TrEMBL record:
Transmembrane segments: 16-34, 97-115, 136-158, 178-199, 206-224, 266-284, 305-322, 337-356
Keyword Cell inner membrane: no
Source domain of life: Bacteria
Keyword line: Membrane, Transmembrane, Transmembrane helix
UniProt key word Transferase: no
PANTHER family: ABC TRANSPORTER PERMEASE YTRC-RELATED (PTHR39177:SF1)
Name of the protein described by the UniProt record: ABC transporter permease
Amino acid sequence: MFNKHIWLKEFRSVRWVLLVLMAMFLYAQTGGLYSDTRIWEEQYNYFQSDSFSKDQEQSADDVKLKPEDVKQSLTLNYFTTGFPGEHYQTQYTMSQSYFALSVLVALLGLAVVAWERYTRKDHFTLVTPFKRVHIIGTKILLGALGIIVSYGISLWLGLRHMFSVIPSEYIDLDTKKVYLGLIGNLGTFLLIFLFAVFLGTVMGELLSTVVAIGVIAIMPSYVYTTWMVFMQTVNPNIDISKLANWTSYMNVFIIFGNSDFEYGPFVVQMILIGLLIVGAIFFYHRYSVESNGKIFVFPYMRIPSALLISFGGAILLINFWVNGRYDSTNALTLTELSIFSVIAFLGCLAVCYAVLYRNAWMRK
């Protein structure tokens, strides 16, 4: 696995994706943190300016900012995304850059296995004098190292600049939130990459692999919303704030998805990463070029995969349908929601069946 020839071969096949990924990390993360630092400086300069003093003099006593309020609003506590709270919050993840990075990481995962299968370069790879475990291990290590190095360098450059500009008196980091947030983001990128690699080992058709990545990666973040909709239709008077909030467990594919900064979702993320590595190695060891072009390489995966993708498709359709009813004057009933859910699931299942068994269906 540490033979230089196999590393050179794998690097040449994905070098352009790695270079673009590095450039995108520098733009999104380093550039984003530079932008946040500039915003902090603008806020700081405003609080030190005469215009702020005049605004304070003209404001009522109950709305005037106290010195401790000013300091709190300038204090960096942790890294997250969203609307500013009591403390200064970084906003760089509000841009579309992280979505583009997630797509690039998925493309890297597709390039190491699925694209090689699509272009038939796997014919050459499998006849090289290397064990399959070493081949897939090199692919995973190369991609993971590319992500870790790009993420680490871009983050270090951005934080170095930020901490050199913001005085230490305005830095009061919550260690738990910082580590769970930043390391959790790295885990998210690795999870997306490994998920794409895993699907490349069990699916033999590139387009179907891309669709499966999109549906399965997006679907978890909508499960909690759908569950809340069902709970509200069952009991319209229910207090949503009292419902168990497990969105952080569902948002494993989303940057800063662990919004509550809990250890549980982080552990689940690490377990999924481990399972995907083991699964990719296991199925690549049973890799066969004769299965190229088939949607699922292993026939016994068709039914469970069709059920999972149909469930994901139904979740997305339910959310789109519910959002489209916001302007409706009629309240959503449990009967309507149940009927639509069943129809959506069966419809997605029918599409999956037609695609999976299209050759037999077309012959008929």
